[in-house]
Design goal:
α1 packs parallel to α6, α3 runs antiparallel to α6 and α4 packs antiparallel against α5. By secondary structure, the protein is of the alpha+beta class. The longest helix is centred in the last third of the chain and has 19 residues. The protein has one domain: 3-Layer(aba) Sandwich (Aminopeptidase). It starts with 11 loop residues before the first strand and ends in a 17-residue tail after the last helix. The radius of gyration is 19 Å and the shape is globular. The strands form five sheets. It has a seven-stranded mixed β-sheet, with helices on both faces. A two-stranded antiparallel ribbon has the order 5-6. The relative contact order is 0.21. The chain is built from eight helices and 15 strands.
Protein backbone atom coordinates (compact mmCIF):
# COMPACT_ATOMS: atom_id res chain seq x y z
CA UNK A 1 0.00 0.00 0.00
CA UNK A 2 1.32 3.48 -0.87
CA UNK A 3 2.82 5.63 1.84
CA UNK A 4 0.51 8.37 0.60
CA UNK A 5 -2.72 6.63 1.54
CA UNK A 6 -5.73 8.89 1.80
CA UNK A 7 -8.13 8.26 4.62
CA UNK A 8 -11.72 9.31 4.25
CA UNK A 9 -13.56 11.07 7.06
CA UNK A 10 -15.95 8.57 8.54
CA UNK A 11 -19.23 9.75 9.99
CA UNK A 12 -21.44 7.31 11.81
CA UNK A 13 -24.63 8.89 13.02
CA UNK A 14 -26.25 6.93 15.79
CA UNK A 15 -28.97 7.22 18.37
CA UNK A 16 -27.51 6.49 21.80
CA UNK A 17 -29.17 5.68 25.06
CA UNK A 18 -29.37 8.91 27.01
CA UNK A 19 -27.00 7.83 29.75
CA UNK A 20 -24.19 6.82 27.40
CA UNK A 21 -22.59 10.24 27.24
CA UNK A 22 -21.31 9.66 30.77
CA UNK A 23 -18.73 7.11 29.69
CA UNK A 24 -16.45 9.65 28.11
CA UNK A 25 -14.34 9.64 31.26
CA UNK A 26 -17.40 10.55 33.36
CA UNK A 27 -18.31 6.96 34.24
CA UNK A 28 -18.29 7.60 38.02
CA UNK A 29 -21.14 10.07 37.70
CA UNK A 30 -23.53 7.32 36.72
CA UNK A 31 -24.19 7.25 40.44
CA UNK A 32 -26.37 10.33 39.95
CA UNK A 33 -29.12 8.03 38.70
CA UNK A 34 -29.34 6.35 42.12
CA UNK A 35 -28.85 9.27 44.51
CA UNK A 36 -32.28 8.66 46.01
CA UNK A 37 -30.80 5.82 48.06
CA UNK A 38 -28.44 5.93 51.01
CA UNK A 39 -25.82 4.13 48.90
CA UNK A 40 -26.36 6.68 46.15
CA UNK A 41 -25.79 9.56 48.57
CA UNK A 42 -22.57 7.93 49.75
CA UNK A 43 -21.36 7.57 46.16
CA UNK A 44 -22.41 11.12 45.34
CA UNK A 45 -20.32 12.56 48.17
CA UNK A 46 -17.39 10.30 47.32
CA UNK A 47 -17.45 11.42 43.69
CA UNK A 48 -17.70 15.10 44.65
CA UNK A 49 -14.62 14.76 46.85
CA UNK A 50 -12.63 12.94 44.15
CA UNK A 51 -13.48 15.50 41.46
CA UNK A 52 -12.67 18.43 43.73
CA UNK A 53 -9.21 16.96 44.37
CA UNK A 54 -8.68 16.55 40.62
CA UNK A 55 -9.50 20.16 39.74
CA UNK A 56 -6.76 22.14 37.97
CA UNK A 57 -7.56 25.37 36.12
CA UNK A 58 -5.81 26.44 32.91
CA UNK A 59 -7.59 29.78 32.62
CA UNK A 60 -10.18 31.06 30.16
CA UNK A 61 -9.89 30.05 26.50
CA UNK A 62 -8.38 32.83 24.36
CA UNK A 63 -11.27 32.24 21.97
CA UNK A 64 -13.90 33.11 24.60
CA UNK A 65 -14.76 36.55 25.93
CA UNK A 66 -16.37 35.11 29.05
CA UNK A 67 -16.64 31.76 30.80
CA UNK A 68 -19.33 29.49 29.38
CA UNK A 69 -22.21 27.99 31.33
CA UNK A 70 -22.81 24.39 30.20
CA UNK A 71 -26.42 24.62 31.37
CA UNK A 72 -27.24 27.07 28.55
CA UNK A 73 -24.20 27.41 26.26
CA UNK A 74 -22.75 25.20 23.54
CA UNK A 75 -19.47 23.90 24.91
CA UNK A 76 -16.51 21.64 24.19
CA UNK A 77 -14.34 19.21 26.14
CA UNK A 78 -10.93 17.82 25.16
CA UNK A 79 -10.25 14.34 26.56
CA UNK A 80 -6.50 13.73 26.92
CA UNK A 81 -5.10 10.27 27.54
CA UNK A 82 -1.43 10.46 28.56
CA UNK A 83 1.21 7.73 28.34
CA UNK A 84 2.58 8.20 31.85
CA UNK A 85 3.31 5.40 34.31
CA UNK A 86 5.49 4.64 37.34
CA UNK A 87 8.25 3.30 35.08
CA UNK A 88 8.24 6.39 32.85
CA UNK A 89 7.81 9.06 35.54
CA UNK A 90 7.34 11.74 32.90
CA UNK A 91 4.74 13.63 34.94
CA UNK A 92 4.07 16.97 33.18
CA UNK A 93 6.57 16.16 30.40
CA UNK A 94 4.57 13.15 29.21
CA UNK A 95 3.10 13.03 25.71
CA UNK A 96 -0.56 12.56 24.94
CA UNK A 97 -1.45 9.12 23.65
CA UNK A 98 -5.09 9.83 22.78
CA UNK A 99 -6.98 13.04 22.00
CA UNK A 100 -10.76 13.14 21.60
CA UNK A 101 -12.58 16.46 21.19
CA UNK A 102 -16.29 16.56 22.09
CA UNK A 103 -18.60 19.46 21.19
CA UNK A 104 -22.04 19.80 22.76
CA UNK A 105 -25.01 21.59 21.21
CA UNK A 106 -27.63 22.48 23.81
CA UNK A 107 -30.54 23.19 21.45
CA UNK A 108 -30.23 19.99 19.41
CA UNK A 109 -29.03 17.87 22.33
CA UNK A 110 -26.31 16.51 20.07
CA UNK A 111 -22.62 15.69 20.39
CA UNK A 112 -19.80 15.51 17.88
CA UNK A 113 -16.75 13.44 18.77
CA UNK A 114 -13.51 13.99 16.86
CA UNK A 115 -10.52 11.68 17.25
CA UNK A 116 -7.23 13.51 16.58
CA UNK A 117 -4.38 11.21 15.46
CA UNK A 118 -1.42 11.50 17.84
CA UNK A 119 1.05 11.94 14.96
CA UNK A 120 -0.87 14.80 13.30
CA UNK A 121 1.71 17.35 12.12
CA UNK A 122 0.50 20.67 13.52
CA UNK A 123 1.59 24.12 14.66
CA UNK A 124 2.21 24.42 18.41
CA UNK A 125 1.82 28.10 19.39
CA UNK A 126 3.74 27.74 22.67
CA UNK A 127 6.88 26.63 20.82
CA UNK A 128 6.24 28.51 17.55
CA UNK A 129 7.01 25.35 15.61
CA UNK A 130 5.45 22.46 13.76
CA UNK A 131 5.60 19.03 15.32
CA UNK A 132 3.43 16.02 16.16
CA UNK A 133 0.44 16.98 18.27
CA UNK A 134 1.41 14.31 20.81
CA UNK A 135 4.37 16.50 21.80
CA UNK A 136 2.21 19.46 22.82
CA UNK A 137 1.50 17.98 26.26
CA UNK A 138 5.22 17.54 26.93
CA UNK A 139 5.69 21.25 26.21
CA UNK A 140 3.23 22.40 28.85
CA UNK A 141 0.63 19.86 29.90
CA UNK A 142 -3.11 20.30 29.29
CA UNK A 143 -2.86 24.08 28.75
CA UNK A 144 -0.49 23.80 25.77
CA UNK A 145 -2.43 20.81 24.40
CA UNK A 146 -5.68 22.78 24.57
CA UNK A 147 -4.09 25.83 22.91
CA UNK A 148 -2.72 23.64 20.11
CA UNK A 149 -6.10 22.00 19.47
CA UNK A 150 -7.79 25.41 19.51
CA UNK A 151 -5.33 26.65 16.90
CA UNK A 152 -5.77 23.53 14.78
CA UNK A 153 -9.58 23.44 14.79
CA UNK A 154 -10.24 27.18 15.18
CA UNK A 155 -12.71 26.64 18.00
CA UNK A 156 -12.67 27.32 21.74
CA UNK A 157 -11.88 24.35 23.98
CA UNK A 158 -13.72 25.11 27.19
CA UNK A 159 -12.81 22.12 29.30
CA UNK A 160 -10.28 19.32 29.43
CA UNK A 161 -10.13 15.95 31.18
CA UNK A 162 -6.70 14.33 31.42
CA UNK A 163 -6.29 10.73 32.54
CA UNK A 164 -3.30 8.38 32.60
CA UNK A 165 -2.84 4.67 31.99
CA UNK A 166 -3.71 3.68 35.54
CA UNK A 167 -7.15 5.28 35.50
CA UNK A 168 -8.01 3.30 32.37
CA UNK A 169 -6.62 0.03 33.77
CA UNK A 170 -8.27 0.45 37.17
CA UNK A 171 -11.68 1.29 35.71
CA UNK A 172 -11.66 -1.79 33.47
CA UNK A 173 -10.51 -3.98 36.35
CA UNK A 174 -13.12 -2.49 38.67
CA UNK A 175 -15.73 -3.55 36.11
CA UNK A 176 -14.29 -7.11 36.11
CA UNK A 177 -13.17 -6.65 32.52
CA UNK A 178 -14.88 -5.62 29.29
CA UNK A 179 -15.96 -7.62 26.26
CA UNK A 180 -14.42 -6.43 22.98
CA UNK A 181 -13.46 -7.76 19.57
CA UNK A 182 -9.70 -8.17 19.11
CA UNK A 183 -9.10 -7.71 15.35
CA UNK A 184 -5.81 -9.62 15.11
CA UNK A 185 -3.17 -11.41 17.16
CA UNK A 186 -0.95 -8.96 18.97
CA UNK A 187 2.01 -8.81 21.31
CA UNK A 188 2.27 -5.51 23.15
CA UNK A 189 3.95 -3.73 26.03
CA UNK A 190 2.17 -3.42 29.34
CA UNK A 191 1.77 -0.13 31.23
CA UNK A 192 5.33 -0.42 32.56
CA UNK A 193 6.79 -0.80 29.05
CA UNK A 194 7.70 -4.49 29.39
CA UNK A 195 7.91 -5.78 25.83
CA UNK A 196 5.57 -8.60 24.73
CA UNK A 197 4.00 -8.71 28.18
CA UNK A 198 0.51 -8.79 26.66
CA UNK A 199 -0.45 -11.46 24.12
CA UNK A 200 -3.94 -11.53 22.61
CA UNK A 201 -5.52 -13.81 20.04
CA UNK A 202 -8.15 -12.44 17.60
CA UNK A 203 -11.84 -12.70 18.43
CA UNK A 204 -14.53 -11.51 20.84
CA UNK A 205 -13.32 -11.87 24.43
CA UNK A 206 -13.25 -10.34 27.90
CA UNK A 207 -10.13 -8.27 28.56
CA UNK A 208 -8.69 -7.06 31.85
CA UNK A 209 -7.32 -3.55 32.27
CA UNK A 210 -3.79 -4.20 31.00
CA UNK A 211 -5.12 -6.17 28.01
CA UNK A 212 -7.65 -3.48 27.10
CA UNK A 213 -4.92 -0.83 27.33
CA UNK A 214 -2.66 -2.86 25.02
CA UNK A 215 -5.46 -3.12 22.46
CA UNK A 216 -6.15 0.62 22.73
CA UNK A 217 -2.49 1.54 22.25
CA UNK A 218 -1.35 -0.83 19.52
CA UNK A 219 -0.91 0.50 15.99
CA UNK A 220 1.67 -1.89 14.57
CA UNK A 221 -0.69 -3.59 12.12
CA UNK A 222 -2.96 -0.72 11.08
CA UNK A 223 -3.13 3.08 11.29
CA UNK A 224 -3.57 5.91 13.75
CA UNK A 225 -7.09 6.39 12.41
CA UNK A 226 -8.07 2.76 13.00
CA UNK A 227 -6.46 3.06 16.41
CA UNK A 228 -8.81 5.93 17.17
CA UNK A 229 -11.78 3.80 16.13
CA UNK A 230 -10.61 0.97 18.41
CA UNK A 231 -10.35 3.38 21.32
CA UNK A 232 -13.92 4.52 20.72
CA UNK A 233 -15.09 0.88 20.61
CA UNK A 234 -13.27 0.10 23.85
CA UNK A 235 -14.81 3.09 25.62
CA UNK A 236 -18.25 2.03 24.39
CA UNK A 237 -17.59 -1.44 25.83
CA UNK A 238 -16.79 0.28 29.13
CA UNK A 239 -20.09 2.16 28.88
CA UNK A 240 -22.03 -1.04 28.28
CA UNK A 241 -20.49 -2.72 31.30
CA UNK A 242 -20.71 0.35 33.56
CA UNK A 243 -24.42 0.84 32.90
CA UNK A 244 -25.42 -2.67 34.01
CA UNK A 245 -27.11 -3.08 37.37
CA UNK A 246 -24.28 -5.35 38.53
CA UNK A 247 -21.76 -2.53 38.06
CA UNK A 248 -23.32 -0.31 40.74
CA UNK A 249 -21.34 -2.00 43.51
CA UNK A 250 -18.15 -1.25 41.55
CA UNK A 251 -18.63 2.52 41.51
CA UNK A 252 -16.55 3.23 44.65
CA UNK A 253 -13.55 1.51 43.03
CA UNK A 254 -14.16 3.39 39.77
CA UNK A 255 -14.32 6.71 41.59
CA UNK A 256 -11.03 5.94 43.35
CA UNK A 257 -9.42 5.03 40.01
CA UNK A 258 -10.54 8.24 38.35
CA UNK A 259 -9.92 10.58 41.28
CA UNK A 260 -6.33 9.47 41.76
CA UNK A 261 -5.36 9.58 38.10
CA UNK A 262 -7.23 12.54 36.63
CA UNK A 263 -6.85 16.29 36.22
CA UNK A 264 -9.66 18.50 34.92
CA UNK A 265 -10.87 22.10 34.93
CA UNK A 266 -14.46 20.87 35.29
CA UNK A 267 -16.02 21.42 38.68
CA UNK A 268 -18.27 18.75 40.12
CA UNK A 269 -21.33 20.92 39.51
CA UNK A 270 -20.30 21.38 35.84
CA UNK A 271 -19.87 17.64 35.48
CA UNK A 272 -23.35 17.16 36.90
CA UNK A 273 -24.66 19.48 34.19
CA UNK A 274 -23.22 17.24 31.50
CA UNK A 275 -24.77 14.18 33.12
CA UNK A 276 -28.13 15.95 33.27
CA UNK A 277 -27.59 16.90 29.63
CA UNK A 278 -27.16 13.22 28.84
CA UNK A 279 -30.29 12.23 30.69
CA UNK A 280 -32.57 14.73 28.94
CA UNK A 281 -35.96 13.58 27.64
CA UNK A 282 -34.90 13.23 24.02
CA UNK A 283 -32.27 10.73 22.89
CA UNK A 284 -28.88 12.23 22.21
CA UNK A 285 -27.54 12.26 18.68
CA UNK A 286 -23.81 11.48 18.52
CA UNK A 287 -21.65 11.87 15.41
CA UNK A 288 -18.16 10.33 15.47
CA UNK A 289 -15.63 12.03 13.20
CA UNK A 290 -12.08 11.44 12.05
CA UNK A 291 -9.60 13.69 10.29
CA UNK A 292 -8.32 12.94 6.80
CA UNK A 293 -4.73 13.08 5.64
CA UNK A 294 -1.67 11.29 4.28
CA UNK A 295 1.38 9.55 5.68
CA UNK A 296 4.60 11.55 5.61
CA UNK A 297 8.01 12.05 7.19
CA UNK A 298 9.56 15.06 8.90
CA UNK A 299 13.08 15.01 10.38
CA UNK A 300 13.25 11.25 9.67
CA UNK A 301 10.13 10.63 11.77
CA UNK A 302 6.66 9.47 10.72
CA UNK A 303 3.96 12.15 10.72
CA UNK A 304 0.33 12.35 9.64
CA UNK A 305 -0.16 15.32 7.30
CA UNK A 306 -3.71 16.61 7.60
CA UNK A 307 -5.58 17.47 4.41
CA UNK A 308 -6.20 21.25 4.52
CA UNK A 309 -9.49 21.27 2.61
CA UNK A 310 -10.94 18.47 4.71
CA UNK A 311 -9.62 20.17 7.83
CA UNK A 312 -11.59 23.30 6.90
CA UNK A 313 -14.72 21.17 6.46
CA UNK A 314 -14.20 19.72 9.93
CA UNK A 315 -13.53 23.16 11.41
CA UNK A 316 -16.76 24.51 9.90
CA UNK A 317 -18.73 21.48 11.07
CA UNK A 318 -17.54 21.95 14.65
CA UNK A 319 -17.93 25.74 14.56
CA UNK A 320 -21.51 25.38 13.33
CA UNK A 321 -22.20 22.86 16.07
CA UNK A 322 -20.94 25.37 18.63
CA UNK A 323 -23.00 28.16 17.07
CA UNK A 324 -19.96 30.02 15.71
CA UNK A 325 -19.49 31.67 12.30
CA UNK A 326 -17.88 29.38 9.74
CA UNK A 327 -14.49 30.01 8.20
CA UNK A 328 -14.47 31.13 4.57
CA UNK A 329 -10.86 30.38 3.70
CA UNK A 330 -9.16 27.08 2.96
CA UNK A 331 -8.01 25.38 6.14
CA UNK A 332 -4.50 25.94 7.37
CA UNK A 333 -2.30 24.33 9.96
CA UNK A 334 -0.53 27.63 10.58
CA UNK A 335 -0.97 30.45 13.07
CA UNK A 336 -0.98 32.86 10.12
CA UNK A 337 -4.38 31.69 8.83
CA UNK A 338 -6.69 33.66 11.05
Amino acid sequence: MSNQRMYRVTKRRRKKKRKKLVAWFLVPLLLLTITGTAYGAYLYNKAASAIDKSFESIGLSSKREAKVNPEVDNTSILFIGVDDSDSRKYEESTRSDALILATFNQKDKSIKLLSIPRDSYVYVPKKDRYTKITHAHAYGGPKVTVETVENLLDIPVDYYVRMNFYAFIDIVNALDGIEVEVPYELNEKNAEDQHNAIHLEPGLQTLNGEEALALARTRKQDSDLLRGQRQQEIIQAMIKKATTIHAVTKYPDIIEAVGGNMKTNLTFNEMKTFVEYATAKNDLTIDTLQLEGTDGRENNSYVFNLDKDKLTETQNLLRKHLGLTNRKSVGSLSHDDE
